Amino acid sequence: MLKSALAALLFACCANAQIHSTVAASGQASIFVPPDQAKIDITITASGPTASAASTKDATQVTAVLGALTKLLGAGANVKTVNYFVGPVYNNSGATITSYSASSTLEVTLTNLSLAGTVIDTAIGAGATSVGDVQFSLQNSDPAHNQALAAATVQAMAHASAMATALGRAVGMVLSVQEVTATPALIGVLTGSSPVTSTTIVPGLLQVQVSVTLQAELN
What is the pLDDT of residues 133-152, one digit of tens each? Predict the structure, then answer.
């Protein structure tokens, strides 16, 4: 009687293990879309014999740059200060203060990307000393993200099905699905500015890449 009970239990365990055997697979998809937003960092730097003199000169140059940008983009221009610094400048030995430096960094956000090059030229012409960064992005990345997510899920299911078929089985109920999303990558070009030719900005395309992993039962 005991042997029969043990045999029945062993059979039930084996059957249950087969029912709950699973397959895990992953899928990846990329969607390439043109950006509809650009952020440009513009820095104004000034120097002076004192911290007050440097900061005053910097403020004057910032006012000039802001005025030029407002004239170009209108009163509703999306411009904000993202960094400000005032500090001493030392000689080569680092023992003596030779002057003071002040700098302000403005971030300009554009939805009309065709103005990106003109914004850079205008800022430099008004007294900006450098352009540190040009970043392109999407105002709403959900549509592209969801499209990539759906394609990655379909691919993961296809991979799971291929493995199941190779084992003489079929994919059953999906037990879990998990998204692993990479940071969107940018393909773009920024060329230099000169008095003769204007700055040219080529936004390129944004790559929205999504990875998905899933686990499903094997029937």
Answer: 789 999 999 999 999 999 99
